[in-house]
């Protein structure tokens, strides 16, 4: 059972989901939450009613927003998830996909003291391994845009893999194995009208589908 002043992990997961959907500029509606969390629409509807009773969310029509209490809870969970991912990859050598899965468990049990210790050991990181900002850190967003906007022959540097791509089956493994990771430099070698692209990165030519190329953030 959660300690006094804490919330059940289900509430944490929903607040985290709403936060990340908003972060990716996606409409925060019940259908989107159901899709992200792989649960039924009726289950989402019931949970949103419970969260409204706990003053964690407010609804206007179909739109769902975090209250100040919900925002505080979401920020804590997202911060601990991204710190856990950073710790699991940097210190323990787990793959992106493994770290993402394990961090989903760690985010609910990391204490404030452990959180501070992780920040210290990791030397105050500002992003998770995928480039998403750690709330409360000194993160400064670069002037980045979608890979799909880069012209053929132009160079780019990967800055961020948004959360939406982390939930696409197999995509984290593909991006990591293809060296499409934050900080890596590449060049667009081909592009089609539907935003399917070929890039040269990490010494290899890699095909990137339209769904990913329109979401991967880069600078150039």
- CATH fold category name of the domain at 145-219: SH3 type barrels
- Mean of residue pLDDT values: 93
Write the H/E string, N to C: HHHEEHHHEEHHEEEHE
Identify low-pLDDT runs: 1-5
Q: Strand share of the residues?
A: 15-25%
Number of helices: 9
Overall CATH class of the domain at 145-219: Mainly Beta
Biggest sheet layout: 6 strands, antiparallel
User: Which structural category do the helix and sheet elements fall into?
Assistant: alpha+beta
Rg of Cα set: 18 Å
End-to-end distance: 49 Å
Give me the side-by-side strand order of the main sheet. 3-8-4-5-6-7
Count of β-strands: 8
Shape: globular
Level of helix content? 40-55%
CATH architecture title of the domain at 145-219: Roll
CATH superfamily of the domain at 145-219: Ferrous iron transport protein A (FeoA)
List the topology elements.
Blueprint: H1 9-23, H2 30-37, H3 41-53, E1 57-60, E2 63-66, H4 68-90, H5 96-106, H6 112-121, E3 145-146, E4 155-160, H7 163-166, H8 171-177, E5 185-191, E6 197-201, E7 204-208, H9 210-213, E8 217-219
Antiparallel strand pairs: 1-2, 3-8, 4-5, 4-8, 5-6, 6-7
Summarize the structure.
This protein has 9 helices and 8 strands. With 220 residues, it is of the alpha+beta class. The radius of gyration is 18 Å and the shape is globular.
Written overview of the protein:
The protein has 220 residues and is α+β, with helices and mostly antiparallel strands. Among the domains are: 9-70, Arc Repressor Mutant, subunit A (Orthogonal Bundle), CATH 1.10.10; 145-219, SH3 type barrels. The protein has nine helices and eight strands. The strands form two sheets. It has a six-stranded antiparallel sheet. A two-stranded antiparallel sheet has the order 1-2. Strand 6 and strand 7 form a beta hairpin. Helix 2 (30-37) crosses helix 3 (41-53) and helix 4 (68-90) crosses helix 5.
